[in-house]
Amino acid sequence: MKVLKFGGTSVGSAKNINKVIDILKDVSSGNQAVVVVSAVGGITDKLLNTAQLAVDKNQDYKEAFKGIKHIHLDIIDELLDDKKTDIVNFVSEKLNHLEQLLDGIFLINEMSPKTSDKLLSFGELLSSYIIAETMKSRGYDTALKNSQELIVTDKNHTNASVDFKATNSNIVSYFNNNTNSITILPGFISKSKDNEITTLGRGGSDYTAAIVAAALNVDELQIWTDVSGMFTTNPKLVKQAFPIKELSYQEAVELSHFGAKVLYPPTVQPVLDKNIPIIIKNTMAPEDHGTSINNNIAHGSLAVKGISNINDIALLTLQGNGMVGIPGFSKRLFETLSQEKINIVLITQASSEHSICIGISEKDAENAKAAIDQTFENEISLHKIDPIIVETGLSIIAVVGDNMKSHQGISGKMFSSLGKNNVNIRAIAQGASERNISAVIAERDVKKALNTLHEVFFEDNTKQINLFITGVGNVGERLIEQIKQQKKYLKENLKLNVRIVGLSNSRTMIFDSDSLSLKSWKDDLAKGERASLEGFLETVKLLNLRNSVFMDITANADVAALYPEYLKNSIAVIACNKIACSGDIENYKLLKRLSLKYNVPFLFETNVGAGLPVIDTLNNLILSGDKITSIQAVLSGSLNFVFNKFDGTKSFHDIVKQAQNEGYTEPDPRIDLSGVDVARKILILARESGTEMNLEDINNKSFLTKANLESNSVDDFYSTLISDEVHFQKLYKDAKSKSCRLKYVAEFNNGKANVGLKEIPEGHPFYNLEGKDNIVMFYTQRYPEQPMIIKGAGAGADVTASGLFADIIRIGNN
Ligand code: ADP
Ligand code: ASP
Ligand code: MG
């Protein structure tokens, strides 16, 4: 014999009820089956909402009732072809009773727990009747038994406790005399000893099935629902969640107690006592394996089996210096809550006894506060303890697994990954069995926390990186292209899932927490909402995704001004923009401090040498204990391009123009030609080497003329280049006459830095530097004579994008 329970969705439409009947066809052939059914999906909530309208004296309850009526009549209409008049009449009469009850509630505008139970019982009574009659009409040997005649409870309406002695004896004697191959029972509903209707708590049909299964000592309890088993975590919140094949009873108890709604928590106990396995299956996909809950699960299974969450939690904190040693303190506290019928979900107590934290359902918080403050009125007035502190808007997340105790470091992994993602933990509890570690966090962080933990414990170390990119000009576009090309490779080889979630240019911005399309992003962005820097920041915060990274691919000071806000929210920053690192030293130091404090990367490799690993190399030298003594470098791809082309055949003006047209200069070429850009770069290298300096401290001997420097627009600048051509020709000829080449050099030496145009003799490492290349020579304690040299293309959209890409990978490997 088997007991099968079908939940609300499983009996939520005629189509699904037909699926249920198909499943029963197989199970019951040659076997007896007891079938427990929920109300039609959503009906219990609808009944409650309709009654609430009536309580509120809102006439709309009549329309709401009609909705409930039609759901049932439509199902009958679709399930039964003919001979249905009797059934429709019976159901209509039941619905009339329901309507009268609702009218009564409207009249007295009040609904007691007792009335609520009476009201809700209609849901299961109707669904079980309709299903039983359908099966009978299709020729199945079916009986309908009202479980109120079997399950006896106390009078605790809406959440009654079962009298197992009376209940078991009722069930056994009924089934001893029953030969039907299928018996349908309504779930959830029961009766007290004095024949009042009671219910077993929301989700209680699972429990009904377990009670019957245990009383009859059946072979198996099957829970048929709308998902393919108990998932590693709530599948509605974590896309990567997957069904757990096997669980022990204790693991199932912990997961359901901490919010895995697929199984009503009290369900396990009755069948555990009899060692009856529970199988959770999907009515919509019966071929799926589902989850088996039993006592003989394979050894060596995963340490963490599942992660669950309960929302709407309030945390009560009772504290005070006089608490230590107050006799019977905890007893009085717990008794108070028990008298108020308030269920405690979690308890933590500091070993100093100075404070105790209790997690309860948010709806009970007000009651609990009043009752506890009253119990300790005396101690509070004597200032031995403080009035109770209530925090709301919280959730509990729990990591569960039988084998957690034999694996070290689970809690370390749990809390460090949450910490890295800025999930603040209000309280922690670990069961003595070490089967469960739970933490109280803000409800708004639940989705991020579950996704983070799921990734850490179940996703084979795959890490999701969520990018928010501001600035999609040449470099940004190349970066997106590179991500598109490499996405699959990164996932397979580095276990990095790099997703672009937000994009903005100066006009519009778009977001998609499920990742933007890398194919149609341009069209999508054009249709996006109006761009705003604050709006962008707010959305990044609101989406609250794990491993969020803000990328600044602009040259805009306002964008750079927001880095502190990103870092403070544990959002990593990758800056292509040099303004922050070369601006005021205090701001640079602040960013470094925030990055450390919030344990979140602030990277800017592309600020110097585009894609060349200049800063990374410098950092590694320093981290390994080396000291920088001097840096010699050619850091401007644009200036190098200009002076390499400038060989007396073309005018200086034309060459600068060409450099700009080919994308090798900043939008304003004066920033390159004045040496400011190079000065910023050597400043950043000096700072990264540990020297505190500002841009003004850098000696910049310009090779430009006064007229060039004083030009007040880009066009004006270009005309002064034409009028001063002789000056540039002279620079070239002077160098040539000494067999030298012109290079724009940056130097850092003994805490001082300078930039300027130099005549470089043959044989010097800079002499043959080609095209737009950069070269950096680090002289250090370990490299005193032969410097460490980094050389290669130092400008261009593609290499800059790959430098940004390298920063993304650094974050991924962090
Ligand atoms: P039924 O009406 O069949 O009793 P429920 O709605 O009570 O179904 O329970 C199934 C739902 O539980 C799923 O649709 C899913 O949204 C939710 N759920 C929450 N946590 C989990 C989990 N860990 N595994 C599976 N389902 C879960
Ligand atoms: N119909 C009840 C509810 O929605 C019981 C159940 O479905 O398990 O809570
Ligand atoms: Mg349920």
TrEMBL record:
Pfam families linked: AA_kinase, ACT_9, Homoserine_dh, NAD_binding_3
The protein's name in its UniProt record: Bifunctional aspartate kinase/homoserine dehydrogenase I
Transmembrane segments: none
A single MF term (Gene Ontology): aspartate kinase activity
Keywords assigned by UniProt, alphabetized: Amino-acid biosynthesis, ATP-binding, Kinase, Lysine biosynthesis, Metal-binding, Methionine biosynthesis, Multifunctional enzyme, NAD, NADP, Nucleotide-binding, Oxidoreductase, Sodium, Threonine biosynthesis, Transferase
InterPro entries membership: AceGlu_kinase-like_sf, ACT-like_dom_sf, ACT_Aspartokinase, ACT_dom, AK-HD, Asp/Glu/Uridylate_kinase, Asp/hSer_DH_NAD-bd, Asp_kinase
Pathway terms, separated by semicolons: Amino-acid biosynthesis; L-threonine biosynthesis; L-threonine from L-aspartate: step 1/5; Amino-acid biosynthesis; L-lysine biosynthesis via DAP pathway; (S)-tetrahydrodipicolinate from L-aspartate: step 1/4; Amino-acid biosynthesis; L-methionine biosynthesis via de novo pathway; L-homoserine from L-aspartate: step 3/3; Amino-acid biosynthesis; L-threonine biosynthesis; L-threonine from L-aspartate: step 3/5
Cofactor(s) in the UniProt record: a metal cation
Record's function text: Bifunctional aspartate kinase and homoserine dehydrogenase that catalyzes the first and the third steps toward the synthesis of lysine, methionine and threonine from aspartate.
E.C. numbers: 1.1.1.3, 2.7.2.4
Catalytic activities: L-homoserine + NADP(+) = L-aspartate 4-semialdehyde + NADPH + H(+); L-aspartate + ATP = 4-phospho-L-aspartate + ADP
Residue ranges of every copy of the ACT domain listed in the record: 399-503
Source organism of the structure: Gilvirhabdus luticola
NCBIfam families: asp_kinases (TIGR00657), PRK09436.1 (NF006959)
Superkingdom of origin organism: Bacteria
Description of how the protein assembles with itself and partners: Homotetramer.
Sequence similarity: In the C-terminal section; belongs to the homoserine dehydrogenase family.
